[in-house]
Structures are given as structure tokens and as C-alpha cells.
Specification:
109 residues, mainly alpha, 2 domains, 5 helices, 74% helix, 0% strand
Length: 109
């Protein structure tokens, strides 16, 4: 393995370790403002959306919105199931089932 790769991994591990354990120590003394606590509650949702949106909207690398995009259709079904407050296994299973049916050609587009 190249030295640059090893150094990059070590530096990122150190940065992750430092922010993970130093932040609570620093914020414990000063306190976290109430507005920041409300804001931080939405970070996981925003991160998940940022990871999923490109895969659903541009699976081949360009924007593809339409019935030919199986990822978008399966994601829409999964999003609907999540909106209906279904358990995570049902939500993921329904999206996977729709993708399987579309990929097998069982449903016309």
C-alpha cells in the first residue's frame, strides 16, 4: 500500500477520534444552545437523504426522472411505506419487492 494512502487513513482516523471525543468535553462546559440541539436532531435525516437522492434520481450518472428509472419507483414505494409508519423491515422489503418485480419484467412500465 502506498504511503499517502496509509497517512490519509491515519489522519482521518485521528480527526474522527478527536471530534468524537473532544466535542462532548468542550460542549459540556459551555453548554449547547437550544437552537443547535433542535438543528442537530435533523442531521441524520439530512445525511440519509444526501446519500440516497443521487442513487434514486441519477442511477446512471445523469438525472433520470420517469417510469424507466426502477430505483426511483422502488424508492417511492419504500418512502410511501415509511410515511404510512410501517416497520423498517416492511418498508425495505416492499421497496426490494418492487425492484425485483420491475427487474424481472413482471410489471409493464
Amino acid at each position: 500500500m502506498r504511503l499517502e494512502v496509509v497517512l490519509t487513513i491515519l489522519c482521518m482516523a485521528a480527526a474522527t477520534y478527536f471530534t468524537r471525543f473532544a466535542s462532548p468535553l468542550l460542549l459540556d462546559r459551555t453548554g449547547v444552545p437550544r437552537w443547535m440541539v433542535r438543528l442537530l436532531k435533523h442531521v441524520p435525516t439530512a445525511m440519509l437523504a444526501a446519500l440516497i437522492a443521487p442513487a434514486l434520481l441519477a442511477p446512471q450518472g445523469y438525472l433520470q426522472i420517469g417510469p424507466g428509472n426502477h430505483y426511483l419507483l422502488a424508492g417511492a414505494v419504500a418512502a410511501f411505506m415509511a410515511w404510512r409508519r410501517q416497520p423498517p423491515a416492511v418498508t425495505m422489503g416492499s421497496g426490494m419487492a418492487v425492484m425485483l418485480l420491475l427487474r424481472m419484467g413482471g410489471l409493464p412500465i
